[in-house]
Amino acid sequence: MSNLERNTTILSKYIPEHAVPFIADWIVVYDIKLKIKKERASKLGDYRAPTKGTNHIITINHNLNPYSFLITLVHEIAHLTTFNKHRDNVFPHGEEWKQEFRILMKHLLHPHIFPTEILYVLARYMHNPAAASCSDHNLLRMLKKYDLEKQGGYVFLENIPFRSVFKYRDNRLFLKGEKIRTRFRCKEIASGHYYLFNPLTEVLLFEKEETETTQ
Fold first, then answer.
1. Looking at the whole model, is its pTM more than 0.90?
2. Is 214 a member of any domain?
3. How many domains does the chain have?
4. 56-61/183-188 β-pairing
């Protein structure tokens, strides 16, 4: 099996079918070693420039949905092409990187690859792409929608009622509180401590808080 065939087989597990030929070809052309990693809370992917004859190395979290995986991967490939042209003489997410990201993404902005609803917000995001797609709440909300569909039962914190009890990650229980600026202030049931949550945090609704009523 050739490298291109092997890359195609692996990529087919993680990204939309019609995007596979582009990415498989870029991996060969740009001499990329792609590593699929366990989930990392601090990042979705990263890029490391070659040293002492090594490949360009890109890592991506394994649990991203196909559209998030593809966008993250192209984000990191844009770092590679920026490095090839400018080395370390430009800002990591400066205009040079943004231009490279746009050039790569234009090959993929197609309804055979992305659902129309993602294409719409992605096209707007491409006018001024940021250091991370999660910094654009409209794009993040749309991409996370496809995570929730495969997880089953999970919802965005912003979509559950005020004073509902919800489970978060390691089954800790929280009571949803008021919104303070851009985040919700929620109380951990066990400790009584308060934490601020992003509205797009994925949670499992445990129960609605009962309220007293008068006849």
1. no
2. no
3. 2
4. unpaired
